[in-house]
Automatic annotation (TrEMBL):
Family: Belongs to the mandelate racemase/muconate lactonizing enzyme family. GalD subfamily.
Positions of the Mandelate racemase/muconate lactonizing enzyme C-terminal domain: 148-277
Protein name stated in the entry: mannonate dehydratase
Annotated PANTHER family: D-GALACTONATE DEHYDRATASE-RELATED (PTHR48080), STARVATION-SENSING PROTEIN RSPA (PTHR48080:SF6)
EC number(s) from the headed UniProt entry: 4.2.1.8
Keyword Lyase: yes
Known function: Catalyzes the dehydration of D-mannonate. Has no detectable activity with a panel of 70 other acid sugars (in vitro).
PROSITE patterns, alphabetized: MR_MLE_1
CC cofactor: Mg(2+)
Keywords of the record: Carbohydrate metabolism, Lyase, Magnesium, Metal-binding
Pfam families (UniProt xref): MR_MLE_C, MR_MLE_N
Length: 422
């Protein structure tokens, strides 16, 4: 066989340009069907388009502007197939790396491009990611209530619905309001007012309230269901160590966000005192936020998610790194992450080796109508469905009927007025 001459090689290589799918448009859609969502829609000359979630709770318009003012024009003319190249262009090319606004914007582009690639291939995205590594995705639901009895009654209801994993959050005696405790059984929405509401917090009262909640829950629910709890960054490491130790007899699946994690070494102290599994990372936006936590095996579950941590591409990298260190995933899935993120998360969860659990809070009927989707829930498990791409869409005409409404997350003060963690 004669070797091809260099110029023939070059021609063959350039011929692949014919398979390019050019991006012809990118637009941001902001809608508020009960709460604000930011969606990026990328269009191509093939007629196929893709969608990506860009919602950053309470800071929605910052990401919308980042995309509209700094990203969308750069996408026009690029080959939509080159997901990694576009990711690197937006990450390295920005000079200003990381941060929730930048990474949510990159996530939206990345997610929309995976959607496009799936639609062009005629395959659901999980097939492009290596195929299903399990039959379905175990999700946890939120049982909460004003007191222990109400929380346990709600947990029983979730068990009847088939949930295999349930998060327990209860009102704290002596405190007027508690994070994670909603007015509605299914729809928890922390962004509750135009400007931040100021709540009062007492760690002492809280710490007294959690072990009795778990004791009552185990009595009522038995041992065949996973129980989870979120401390929402309210504890010091030593307080978290104590709570973890006190919960050990009830075998919690995890204690979430025990302490703030800017200082990753915080978790060493917690680990020295308890074998309760630890989860953290819903506010992380990059693999670098979790490097030490993972390398030193200071956590058991990483909660970073598609929309806030650079999309499917970056989250896969993070999950693969975590897998080397026995850390599993437990992606954030509160209602402020749109159904577009939920769909992407389910494709990701289904395909990775070290999946742990997926948070699932049902969206309102208004939100579901704006974002028609193929994912489904049955017996405590979810599946993204087999539609090509992500299997989720945005009804733009309906979205336009719900204009943006400013809304903020509350803030917290200690009983003496000291500003505290939300
Ligand atoms: C969770 C989270 C939420 C967040 C909310 C903030 O575990 O689901 O802690 O309750 O507070 O998503 O945007
Ligand atoms: Mg949380």
């Amino acid at each position: 066989m004669p070797q091809p001459k260099p110029d023939e090689n070059a021609r063959a290589w350039h011929a692949s340009a014919a398979s390019k799918v050019r991006i012809t448009g990118a637009k941001v859609i902001v809608t508020c069907p009960g709460r604000n969502f930011v969606t990026l829609k990328i269009e191509t000359d093939s007629g196929v388009y893709g969608v990506g979630d860009a919602t950053l709770n309470g800071r929605e318009l910052a990401v919308a502007s980042y995309l509209t003012d700094h990203v969308n024009d750069c996408l026009i003319g690029r080959d939509a197939h080159r997901i990694e190249d576009i990711w690197q262009f937006l990450y390295r090319g920005a000079y200003w790396r990381r941060g929730p606004v930048t990474m949510a914007a990159i996530a939206a582009v990345d997610t929309a491009l995976w959607d496009i690639k799936g639609k062009l291939a005629g395959l659901p995205v999980y097939q492009l990611l290596g195929g299903a590594a399990r039959d379905g995705v175990m999700v946890y639901g939120h049982a909460n209530g004003a007191d222990v009895d109400e929380t346990v009654a709600n947990a029983l209801h979730y068990k009847e619905l088939g949930y295999k994993a349930i998060r327990l959050q209860s009102g704290v005696p002596g405190l007027a309001s508690t994070y994670g405790v909603s007015r509605d059984r299914y729809f928890y929405e922390p962004a509750d007012a135009r400007l931040p509401t100021e709540n009062i917090w007492s760690t002492e009262k809280y710490l007294r309230s959690v072990p009795p909640l778990f004791e009552a829950a185990r009595k009522a629910l038995g041992w065949d269901v996973h129980l989870l709890h979120d401390a929402h960054h309210r504890l010091t490491p030593i307080e978290a160590g104590r709570l973890g130790k006190e919960l050990e007899p009830y075998r919690p699946f995890w204690l979430e966000d025990a302490t703030p994690a800017e200082n990753q070494a915080n978790f060493r102290l917690i680990r020295q005192h308890t074998t309760t599994p630890l989860a953290v990372g819903e506010i992380f936006n990059s693999i670098w936020d979790a490097k030490q936590l993972i390398e030193e095996q200071l956590i058991d579950y990483i909660r970073a998610t598609i929309v806030h941590a650079g999309g499917i591409s970056h989250l896969r990298k993070l999950a693969n790194f975590a897998d080397l260190h026995n850390v599993r995933t437990g992606c954030h899935g509160a209602t402020d992450l749109s159904p577009v993120c939920m769909a992407a998360a389910l494709h990701f969860d289904l395909s990775i080796a070290n999946f742990g659990v997926q948070e699932y809070m049902r969206h309102t009927a208004e939100t579901d109508a704006v974002f028609p989707h193929h994912y489904r829930f049955a017996d405590g498990m979810m599946h993204p469905g087999d539609a090509p791409g992500l299997g989720v869409d945005i009804d733009e005409a309906l979205a336009a009927q719900y204009p943006y409404e400013p809304a903020s997350l509350p803030v917290n003060r200690l009983e003496d007025g000291t500003m505290f963690n939300w």
